Amino acid sequence: MPLNIELFSEIGLLVVIAALVSFLTRLLRQPLIIGYIFTGLLVGPFFLNLIRSHDTFQLFSEIGISFLLFIVGLSLTPYVIKEFGKVSLIAGFGQVIITSFVGYFICLAMGFSILTSLYISMALAFSSTIIILKLISDKGDLEKLYAKISIGFLLVQDLIAIFLLFIIPLVSVGKDSLAKIGFLSLRGALAILIIFLISFFFLPKLNRFLSSSQELLFIFSIAWGIGLAALFKNIGFSLESGALIAGVALSALPLRHEISARLIPLRDFFIILFFVLLGSQMIVGDLRSLLIPGLILSALVLIGNPLILMIIMGILGYRKKTSFQTGLTVAQISEFSLILIVLGIKFNHLRPEILSLVTLVGLITISGSTYFILYSEKIFNIISRYLGVFERKKIFEKEKRKKDYEFILFGYNRIGFDFLETFKKMEKEFLVIDYNPQTIEQLDRIGANNEYGDASDICFLESLNFQKIKMAISTIPALETNILILERIKHQNPVTIAMMVAHNIRDAMILYDKGADYVILPHFLGGKYASLLVKNLHFDTERFKKLRQRHISHLYLRESLGQNHPTIKKYY
Fold first, then answer.
1. Do the domain assignments include residue 570?
2. pLDDT tens track for 137-163
3. Is the Cβ–Cβ distance between 88 and 95 less than 8 Å?
4. Which structural domain, as residue segments, surrounds residue 221?
5. Rounded CA gap, 332 and 428, in Å?
6. Same domain for 143 and 215?
7. Does residue 215 register a pLDDT over 80?
C-alpha cells in the first residue's frame, strides 16, 4: 500500500510541475512541447532527480505513443498509401543515405573513429516520428499534402531504424542471424494479413452496432489499438508498428473520425509523460568539450536535413512550399537515435561520452525544429522568394485552370459542400480550390471544376486571376490564410465579394477590418437557422418529421463523404 501511495504522489508531483512549467511556457507564447521536455530536464537526474518509478513512466509513455500512432493510422487510408508510397520510399531512403554519408565525413573530420563516425552519422539520419506527428496534429495539418508525405517517409525511416536496432544485436551475436530475421518477418507478415482480413470482412459489419453506444465504441477502440500494439511487441516488432497498423486497419470505417476524436484526450495526457520522460533522459556531461561538435552536428540536422529533403522533393516535381514544409519535419533527431547509441555502448562499439554528445544534439534539434514546424507558414512567407531553386519548371502539383469563373471556393468539405450545391443550381461557372488530394479526386468524380492548391501559399495565390471573379468564398477557418486570400482578392479586384469563415468573434472582426464583405460564424449561423425553423414550422409535427428525415439523409451523405464537424483548437 505505501508503494502505491508513493507512486501516486510521484505522478501527482510531476504533473503539477509540468503544469507550472507549461503555464510559464504559454505566458512566453512558446510551444508547450518545449515545456514538457524542460520539465523532464528539471525533474531528471541532472537537477531535482524526482523520477523514481522509471518503469511506470516508461509504460505510460508507451501507451501515449500507441495512442498517437493509432490515431495517425486512422488517417492513413489505402488511397493515401497508394498515392504517396513512391515519394515516401524515395524521400525516406534518400534522406537517410545522404545524411549518413555527409555526417560520416563530418565526424571523421572532427577526429572520431570510423566506427564511431558510422554510428553518429546513422543516428543523425533519423527524425522523431512521435514529435513530428504531435506537432502536425496540433497544427491541424494531418490532411495536408506535406503531412501525408512526411508520415510516409517517417514510416520508412522507422522501418530502417527498427531493422538496425534488430540487426545490430544479431550481428554482434553472430549465430543464426538470417534464420531469426526470416522467422520474424514471416510472423509479422502473417499477423498483418490476419488483421487486414478481419478489418476488411468482419469489422464493417460491426459498424452500426458499435455506433449505437459511445462507451462501447470507446472501449473497442482502446482494446483494438493497445491490443495490436502489444501483439506486435510480443512477436518481436515495435509497439509503434503495431499501433500504426491498428489505425490503418480501421481507416476505411466511417467511424474513424469519431474514434479519433474520443481518443485524443487520452493521447494528450500520456504523450505529455512521454516528453517528460524524454527530457529526463537528456543528461549532458562536460558541456565545454561537447559544445562545438554538438553545434556542428546540430547544424547538419537543423539545416542540412531540410535542404537534402527539399532537393529530393524538388527533383520529384513538388512545389517549393510543399518541399519546404516537408523538409522542416526532418530537422531533429529521433528517440531511435538515442537508442542506437545506447546499443553501441552496450556492445562496446562506442565510448559513453558519445551518448552525451548525441543527447545534446537531440535537445538542440528538437527545440529548434519545434519552432520550424509550428511557424513554417510565416517562415515560408518571409523566404519564399529565395526557394525557387528547389522547384522545377515542370511541377507535379499541376494546375487545371483553363477558363474564367464567376465563383471561386476555397475548401470543399463541410460548409463548402453546401456552396457547391448552390453553384450547381445557379448554373454558374465555378472553381473549387482544395489542398486534400482525396477531396480533389472526389471533385473529379462528380465533375466539379477544381484545382489542387494551398491557399496559405502566397505564391499559389499570386498565380490565381481574380479579375473576373464576382464572388470568392473561403471555408478555411485559419485566420492568417483568410487574410492572405483577402489581401490578394482586394488587390486584384476590389469589387469582388469576399465571404470568409471564422470560429470566433475576434477573428470575424479582424476579417471585417481587412475588407471581408461577410464573415460566416457557423455556430451563430446554426442557431439563427434553427430559430427560423421554429418561426416557420410552428408546432406542425408532420413538417418536422419530414424535415427530420431529410436532415438524417443529408447527414448520412456528408458522413459517407468523410465530412465531420472539426475540432477547433488554437496553438502558439
1. no
2. 777 777 677 888 888 888 788 778 767
3. no
4. 2-175+183-390
5. 49
6. yes
7. yes
